[in-house]
Amino acid sequence: MERGRGFWGSRSEPPSADDASAWIAGAIPDDWFTGSPEVVVDRDEIMIIGTLGPPRVESDTTEADRATAEQGRIAAFREETRDRRIRLARQLEHRYRRKVAWGVACGGTREMFTTLAAPVMTRLRQPDRQVLDTLVDAGVARSRSEALAWCVRLVGQHADHWLGELRQAMGAVDELRRRGPDIAA
Description:
185 residues, 2 domains, 15% strand, 5 helices, alpha+beta, two-stranded antiparallel ribbon
């Protein structure tokens, strides 16, 4: 079965977003972030995470007060840039057919303003369902869906290096395909 086609009809793949980082770097005002924003793209969403300059605080400020100042800096940025971020998100969504999420980092504080929660259907055999049910019964998660998300995050934390190597290898395969002969004739 062709990827993206299933019982509920067809879903065409969104266009390539290989140039999204460059487009975003050109569209975002230079004074928003201390450098180029981190841009993370998958088939459903584009996440843009910029770094804000640290707030000015006294050298003897407690960590709690420093974190509060960072939260204040983030809240001010979020409010002051809302209209422009919405306009940029609309342009990106039209260009790349993906939802856009915004977030910032300031000192030790990182906050996402908007993110997409995409439904994912999966079939699990009984032993796998029992793992999820154990997490629900133990109060780790409120539902199987939340338990599955918890498991995915846990694997992501502990297999980050391996997943990075896998993504890099997949990128190399995509590049080889792109350079290969055109057989669509």
